[in-house]
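Priority: medium. Attachment 1 of 2:
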């Protein structure tokens, strides 16, 4: 009995394997691809042939609605890919222009600062304003200081028709002056007490000066000062050496700190100063 059962199971397994082998080589139905190239490929491959054919027929049967114009009716043509891209660009909201902001906010609202006349814009002193020995024909005695405000030079008269020449800054327009005085006082790293006239004048322009400033590198009088007679004018240094060679002061004669220090050591109280 058991032998018959085993024989029956073996025959059944043999027939089923042969059937599966035949099914493996059976011809499969072809894949139908939609002629509508705009349809997603995944939908085309996954749809049943009959359902996909009905969908294509429905799309072909659909007619575009007529557009009524003033002259005649027409049916719009199917948009091309380029047309669709342009339409998408038109439909996109306009981008807000980017406003670059600096540390003070919108740069478009920042006003440009006007450059003051006669203010030097160079960052280095010009070579002709550096100290140098030059031939100088004059009748003045050695030790006399002659200041040529037009050419921005200070001459310390020496022996033998020579002079030591320094570059200087002079009074701006409206503050020019000429005359003869003597050095009545000398000071190292002098303090600065602006005259009341200067304080009021600068305040009217929106520049507020201190009533007094101690001597130091930030002081406008610089490293040394030589006071001229009983006037408010001085030969002094500066914390803005790039202004040498320009007409920028309120009448004082300014020099580089290293130059005024050199002159300070060569000049005594009572030295004659001629400003031309």
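Attachment 2 of 2:
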């Amino acid at each position: 009995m058991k032998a018959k059962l085993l024989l029956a199971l073996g025959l059944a397994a043999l027939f089923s394997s042969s059937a599966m082998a035949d099914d493996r080589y059976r011809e499969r139905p072809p894949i139908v691809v939609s002629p509508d190239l705009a349809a997603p490929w995944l939908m085309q491959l996954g749809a049943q042939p009959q359902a996909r054919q009905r969908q294509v027929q429905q799309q072909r049967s659909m007619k575009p609605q007529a557009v009524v114009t003033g002259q005649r009716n027409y049916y719009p043509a199917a948009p091309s890919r380029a047309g669709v891209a342009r339409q998408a660009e038109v439909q996109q909201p306009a981008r807000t222009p980017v406003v670059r902001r600096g540390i003070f906010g919108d740069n478009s609202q920042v006003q440009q600062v006007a450059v003051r006349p006669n203010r030097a814009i160079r960052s280095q002193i010009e070579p002709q304003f550096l100290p140098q020995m030059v031939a100088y024909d004059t009748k003045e005695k050695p030790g006399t200081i002659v200041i040529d405000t037009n050419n921005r030079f200070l001459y310390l008269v020496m022996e033998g028709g020579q002079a030591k020449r320094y570059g200087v800054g002079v009074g701006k327009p409206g503050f020019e002056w000429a005359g003869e005085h003597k050095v009545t006082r000398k000071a190292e790293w002098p303090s600065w007490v602006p005259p009341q006239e200067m304080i009021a004048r600068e305040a009217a322009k929106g520049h507020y000066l201190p009533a007094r400033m101690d001597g130091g590198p930030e002081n406008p009088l610089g490293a040394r000062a030589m006071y001229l007679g009983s006037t408010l004018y001085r030969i002094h240094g500066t914390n803005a050496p790039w202004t040498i060679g320009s007409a920028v002061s309120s009448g004082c004669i300014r020099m580089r700190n290293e130059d005024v220090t050199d002159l300070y050591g060569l000049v005594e109280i009572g030295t004659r100063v001629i400003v031309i």
